[in-house]
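Priority: low. Protein: Phospholipase. Input follows.
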Amino acid sequence: MTEAVVDDILIMLPPLLQTLEALSYVARYLNPPDFDRVMADIGDPEQALQTARTHLTSWPADFAHIRIAFDTAADAALMSFAGLRAVQRGEGDLIDVFRALRQLPRALEALFPLAATLPPLSEFFLDPAVGNDQALRQLLAATSGKDAVFHDHNEIGNRGGFSLYVPEYYTADRAWPLVMALHGGSGNGRDFLWSWLRAARSMGAILVAPTAAGPTWALMGEDADTPNLVRILDLVRSRVAVDSARMLLTGMSDGGTFCYVSGLERHSPFTHLAPVAATFHPLMAQIADRDRLRGLPIQIVHGQLDWMFPVEIARHTQDALAKSGARIVYREIDDLSHCYPREVNVDLLRWLMS
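Result:
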């Protein structure tokens, strides 16, 4: 790597990662009444990123893939901030905020392949909860260069496909825990994969992020999604060694609600359920199979500030499922609105693995 390229990476990478972390902060703490305060909290990191880009030099062709990834991620981050700033100026609404934040996973997807060669990026794609785990870092360094993220008919706009993360240090000599993570309404698995990848990479779990067959999960009418989830699970299990006693079905919003719809079925293969920011109808507990519910580990995660599904729903759900015999862990987060709390993922994996 030439000295000029190294200098450019040192100029570009810190403000790029800081900008992405700022977008993650907005995505985590987004609450409509607090939008202006949250934006004030993060300052204006995109300005440093814009300045850094103006100082970049021409790169040799051998390093074009790194430059393309940096440019793609920076373009996505700056586009996201442009959308957020427009809403601050009164030129949009909450839907425009969500639309702007969709650029964040596109930036992460562009950068992740470089984690194998750039240690700061490898560190960026680890969960802070693992702290100074040198054994993990040695494993990642020893297996750098292995493909880890795969997409099966899961381009943005496609329905019914899935994205898959297999830890770089995966070996077939033991069975691995699996997480199937379901996106929220109108979302897709390719983007939602990045809500979970840090934790799966840090803890050693196979991660599957499917996309609903329709605009959202089959919460009413004919259920085309459960058979597709089983198909995807069977396909993944035919390729990697999965621990059949540690398979978590989790999801956000509509995806969390579908955890109940699908995961409470008698023949569901999943051993643990973890709906996040989900809604629940008491009839679900009444019509669910008694044998399936008895002793089933379910962890409910909900925010006190949830404006879409008020927290009282989650509290009633806890009571209904506990009375039906499920083993309930209830986690209520006081500063969480209707957002995905990425900080719970490592704890969910520890719960799954315990």
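The CA atoms of residues 225 and 231 lie 10 Å apart. The domain at 128-353 is CATH 3.40.50.1820 (Rossmann fold).
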